[in-house]
Amino acid sequence: MQNKQSPGKRSRAAVRKTRRTARIGQPAQTTVTVTFRHVEPTEAIRLYAERKLGHLGKYAKQACAAHLILSVDKYRQHGEVTVKSGRFSMTAEDESKDLYAVIDLLADKVARQLKRQLEKITARKTRALSTGEVLSAAEVIETEID
Fold first, then answer.
1. Is the pLDDT of residue 1 over 60?
2. Using alpha carbons only, how large is the chain's radius of gyration in Å?
3. Any idea where the domains of the chain sit in the sequence?
4. Can you tell me the distance from the alpha carbon of 141 to that of 135, in angstroms, rounded to the nearest whole number?
5. Spelled out in words, what is the top-level CATH class assigned to the domain 27-124?
6. Is the pLDDT of residue 23 over 70?
7. Long-range interactions of 114-122: CB distance < 8 A, separation 24+
8. pTM
9. Predicted local confidence at residue 29, as pLDDT
10. CA distances from 72 to 47, 69, 136 (A)
11. Region 66-90: what's the mean pLDDT?
């Protein structure tokens, strides 16, 4: 009677680790959609926006979707971007005399917002002191006072 030998804990852990590093090692995928209002849609502007907003994936841990709305009203070039990644949703608006400058400003604003949100999350994950640590710290303070 031969029993089929299952892989051990260490080999399963190694497989999980390689999968995790493959998944985490790559930046999150960013899909960018560009909407033009009252302006002629050009491929150059679309590609520029996709290139600038495509870098947001390196800040997010999950796949994110960016929706950029570009509009022109007389001499004002206006842009609005909404980025959704998991449960986060960031928006930014800006206007300038040049559509390329608007895209640059919006990409910077949203990147700052994303970085700040992620910093808040990592700051929140700090470990609280255990009861023993609190009591020992209190005893040290009491001995210093006496």
1. no
2. 25
3. 27-124
4. 10
5. alpha beta
6. no
7. 114/56, 114/59, 114/60, 114/83, 114/85, 114/88, 114/90, 115/59, 117/88, 117/90, 118/59, 118/60, 118/61
8. 0.67
9. 83
10. 18, 10, 65
11. 92
